[in-house]
Amino acid sequence: MLNSSVLVLNRSYLPVHVTSVRRAFSLLYQDIARAVGDQYQTFDFESWRQLAVAQEEEAIGTPSGRMRVPRVIVLVAFDRLPRRHVRFSRINLMARDAFQCQYCGDKPSRSELNLDHVVPRSLGGRST
Known about the structure:
alpha+beta; 5-stranded mixed β-sheet; 16% helix; elongated
């Protein structure tokens, strides 16, 4: 149970990472994150610990009783977006353009499409 997945959101509720329940509890206890409940309310460690645990909910046993397992946590201070690197490739360019010819607007089959440079790269054209 402690190694199952928990979604980590940044301060603006954008997904950042997936971590383990063990790490999520550590972040909650250190007051770095808040647990997100069923109705999207947030809880610090102490208030999360005091929530009642229904029989069908996932929980872990502690010396003071059973404690719900958080499935989503939100970080208190982290607000940067995760870096996303999109590879420059033929298929990514075609997906960006919805597999549509940028000259005439037709949508031929994928095998009929090709890449074309307005200024050839051999003459200093760019691939952007």
